[in-house]
Design a protein that fits this description.
heterodimer; A: 445 residues; Cytochrome Bc1 Complex, Chain A, domain 1; six-stranded mixed sheet; 12 strands; 43% helix; B: alpha+beta; 2 domains; disordered N terminus
């Protein structure tokens, strides 16, 4: 039996698929990820406006969800029928920074997919009855959220991780604001969405000239985008702990935020490596200690949450009540350790290979590549960003990380969101934050 | 020639219907397969579209192979197999895979335990080496067992005890399949895992983790000659194990009728209803019609249950029906979550009337075509990655008893007729033998 793992020393062979770039006559950029051997095509129309532009909490999210619930030509059922009878899907997606319409299906329906995406984006109905139905469904989701310690901890953390910033708000608003939204408000938001800077991304077995011709017919009538209202960068309120109490919880959920940087910041590559070492995968420190050594949890991770106007490093885990205090101590210790001790060569190399391998696995399908393209466009990065980023990652040595470790990984900078039984969670965070607040989710405020 | 108006209408409808039926486009998976002398079945699928490989090792052991007094063993091994072997130290298996840029995971069902790696293609030998190591060289020792006991308990809390309606599937199975090894879920009993000894775990490992009880699939960007040599070098030295003793699933005991239970749930916010029926096994020829039936009933906003209960009557925020396919006997279950302020009686009545309608009147041509189109897209989407392809190949070999069945699946869906759907609806739902669980929210 062979006793050493047969690790290959060959460098990874990266294949960044070719991406074609075109423009519609109204200036809308079109990005095409061709894939001759695939059967599916995806058309994404993405706009750089999201919940951060909300004047009324939840308005972008609800508007986006209403786009596919009826058009001037078809009611909600008729539109769903039109899409589903072809086995296709038309989804509307929104987050804090962007919203998009995404139509997917077999390539033979390409013309229909473009038509349906255009119809729901340009001519939504905003029917009052449909809005009521959507409201009811979201209200029930909110009721479910209220008993979920993971959701509660996430919201508690966001309050101070994005202190006073639109990013602190829940995507759909809260139960009160939800009731106040009207079709008129949604129409106003729709006008803002249509006027926002946009991109169209097509992934699948397509011919570029044919794509542009079809998109021109469908979206060429849209006006050129106008300027967006500016959004400040988010700031954290450090050393704050926010408790979301849940008397009957059997587990405690932790959601912790540390400062992070944007994708184009010179520290980002090092930041990604340090975050990966801390908790980016199952070999990382948090997972190793909390799950593999102590058996406290099913998972414990750290990740970068990079938005266009703010970024945080998140730490997440859920543990049994009995393990709450020790888990808090372990996390604090690991953050202090990574903030002060040099990462050794092997640990860095493992994290690097994990990131590079993830990148290789993230380009298996044209739809995955399209998603990377949108990340670059949304954050206004150069379109060779990932190739350059990979080169940066490959060059970094442990000494290059030290400054980033010291600047961004410290318990003096963090916000701790925690949800569970108050008698369990309060003592657990008392020594690791200076201010403790309590947030009750009933009204979401 | 003048055609009667009705005939013209019929022709127009037929043309429209034909026009909307997608022509089957999926590309067949090519593969080679062979057995090692020790019985390990190997399937190789080359796909050079991305520099990635996946390995799947499918062990023919699931929770139904467990001793009823020692449930949860199969799932427990899903965790233990990431511990140590003769030459892999504790905590280093993940390290090797993640450190090579890979991803690893596993799952356990009633019928199977499946392990997979997805790695950059230059690391295919690493994946095979680890799988070979843990196939026969796993250390089943106190430290690993104790650690994973804790992890499994937390998994149970996370997925069952701390989740709204968390125990419904366990409760439904325990009634529907009482007296068979399908009556318990893969998570099993925490008590059984706690009280089991190391020799018991070792005996389970030796019984089921043998080359002749496994299927190895390699899919993706690799060189077949190199991979064949590597497999032979790493797995070829193992002896064939004894044939595992498998409990007989046996005959299902008829239920006395509809079995109902109401559960007060402190985690739930809305009342919910779970109606479960026994169904055909996953290789039964009717399984394809049953799958299309569930699509017609609840896939998409134009589906029958969604349209009726959620959209039109607005008595539910969720109304769905799904299949739970298994090797010997399946399950079909309906889930209805009441809308705020609405009761479960209307939800149950709505589900029952939709099931009755489909049994009485069948479905339309358009519904059948829509269901086939949705299925085809799902089928293609579900086979876009190297892991998904590897999994499909192992399932075909194991459950359809022929790997080539992987390429016949869509044809079987396409052959389903309206009459098949109606007949299968009657076969599943035309009985009063079902389990109805209602969950009512209560303050904790």
């Amino acid at each position: 039996m062979h006793t050493l793992p047969p690790l290959s020393t060959e460098p990874l062979r990266f294949v960044v698929p070719p991406i074609l770039h075109r423009f519609l006559k109204n200036g809308t950029p079109v990005h095409i990820v061709p894939a001759a051997n695939e059967d599916l095509v995806t058309v994404t129309v993405a706009m750089r406006t999201g919940a951060r532009h909300d004047l009324f909490p939840g308005e972008t999210s609800i508007t986006a969800q209403m786009l596919s619930r009826g058009t001037t030509r078809l009611d909600a059922l008729g539109f769903a029928e039109e899409v589903e009878r072809r086995g296709c899907s038309v989804r509307t997606i929104s987050d804090s920074d962007a919203c998009s319409v995404q139509a997917s299906g077999l390539i033979e329906w390409f013309d229909d997919l473009v038509r349906l995406a255009s119809e729901c984006l340009l001519t939504p109905r905003f029917d009052a009855t449909e809005l009521d139905k959507l409201r009811q469904r979201i209200t029930s989701d909110m009721m479910v959220d209220l008993v979920d310690v993971e959701w509660l901890a996430t919201r508690a953390c966001a309050l101070r991780a994005y202190d006073g910033h639109p990013y602190a708000r829940p995507r759909n608003g809260n139960p009160t604001t939800l009731q106040q939204l009207t079709p008129e408000i949604l129409r106003g938001v729709h006008a803002r969405i249509l006027a926002a800077p946009r991109h169209i991304i097509v992934a699948g077995p397509v011919d570029a000239d044919n794509v542009v011709e079809k998109l021109e017919a469908a979206f060429g009538g849209m006006q050129e985008p106008g300027p967006l209202v500016g959004t400040p960068r988010s700031i954290m309120r450090p050393r704050t702990g926010v408790i979301a109490p849940k008397q009957d919880a059997v587990q405690t959920a932790f959601r912790i935020a540390l400062p992070c940087v944007s994708f184009d910041h010179p520290d980002y590559a090092a930041m990604q490596l340090v975050t990966t070492v801390l908790g980016g995968y199952t070999l990382a420190r948090l997972f190793s200690v909390l799950r593999e050594e102590k058996g406290y949890t099913y998972g414990a991770y750290a990740f970068s949450d990079v938005r266009t106007h703010g970024a945080t490093t998140g730490i997440v885990t859920s543990v049994g009540n009995d393990f709450t205090a020790d888990t808090m101590a372990v996390i604090a210790n690991e953050v202090r350790r990574i903030g002060s001790e040099r990462i050794d060569d092997e640990e860095l190399e493992n994290a690097r290979q994990q990131i590079l391998g993830t990148f290789a696995r993230s380009n298996e399908t044209p739809q995955q590549t399209a998603s990377l393209v949108w990340t670059m466009l949304q954050h206004q990065l150069p379109l060779d960003y990932f190739e350059r980023h990979i080169m940066r990652l490959q060059r970094l040595v442990p000494e290059d990380l030290v400054g980033v470790q010291e600047r961004y990984f410290s318990t003096t900078a963090w916000v701790v969101g925690i949800s569970g039984q108050p008698s369990v969670v309060r003592p657990a965070i008392e020594g690791v934050v200076d201010i403790i607040e309590e947030w009750t989710a009933e009204g979401y405020e | 020639m003048n055609l009667p108006t009705t005939r013209i209408a019929a022709i127009v409808v037929a043309i429209l219907v034909l026009a909307l039926q997608a022509s089957a486009q999926y590309k067949p998976l090519t593969f080679t397969e062979y057995d090692l002398p020790n019985g390990l079945h190997v399937i190789l699928h080359e796909d050079h579209s991305a520099p990635v490989i996946a390995t799947v090792v499918h062990y023919m052991v699931g929770s139904r192979d467990e001793d009823p007094a020692r449930t949860g063993f199969a799932h427990f091994f899903e965790h233990l197999m990431f511990e140590s072997t003769d030459v892999i130290e504790r905590g280093t298996l993940d390290k090797m895979v993640n450190g090579a840029g890979g991803q690893l995971n596993a799952f356990t069902s009633n019928d199977q335990t499946v392990y997979h790696f997805v790695l950059p293609s230059n690391q295919v030998r690493l994946a095979l080496w680890i799988e070979a190591q843990r196939m026969r060289k796993l250390h089943v020792n106190t430290i690993g067992v104790e650690t994973q006991r804790g992890v499994v308990k937390e998994e149970r809390k996370n997925r069952y005890d701390n989740a709204p309606y968390g125990g419904w599937i366990e409760k439904s199975q325990s009634v529907l399949f009482a007296g068979t090894p399908y009556q318990w879920s893969p998570i099993g009993s925490a008590q059984h895992i706690d009280s089991a000894s190391i020799p018991e775990f070792k005996a389970f490992y030796d019984a089921f983790y043998q080359p002749n009880n496994a299927v190895l699939v390699v899919s993706g960007d690799f060189d077949e000659t190199l991979v064949r040599e590597t497999i032979n070098a790493y797995f070829g030295g193992y002896q064939k194990g004894p044939e595992p003793r498998r409990p007989n699933v046996g005959e299902l005991i008829p239920l006395s009728g509809e079995i109902r239970e109401t559960i007060n749930d402190t985690k739930a916010q809305l009342p919910a209803l779970f109606i479960s029926y026994r169904a055909m096994n996953q290789t039964d020829p009717d399984a394809y019609a049953a799958d299309l039936l569930t699509t017609i009933l609840s896939n998409g906003e134009s589906s029958r249950l969604y349209h009726s209960l959620v959209d039109s009557q607005q008595v539910a925020v969720q109304a769905s029906i799904s299949m739970f396919p298994r090797e010997f006997v399946g399950m079909v279950y309906c889930v209805g979550i009441a809308a705020p302020g609405k009761g479960l009686a209307d939800v149950e009545k709505g589900i029952d009337s939709e099931l009755a309608l489909i049994m009485r009147d069948g479905i339309s041509d358009e519904e059948l075509i829509k269901a086939k189109n949705i299925t085809e897209v799902g089928f293609i989407e579900g086979r876009m990655g190297v892991y998904e392809k590897a999994l499909a190949l192992s399932n075909a070999y194991r459950f359809d008893k022929a790997t080539s069945a992987v390429n016949d699946e869509m044809t079987k869906y396409m052959k389903v007729t309206k009459a098949d759907i109606q007949r299968v609806a009657k076969r599943i739902f035309g009985t009063n033998q079902r389990v109805v669980l209602t969950y009512l929210p209560v303050k904790g």
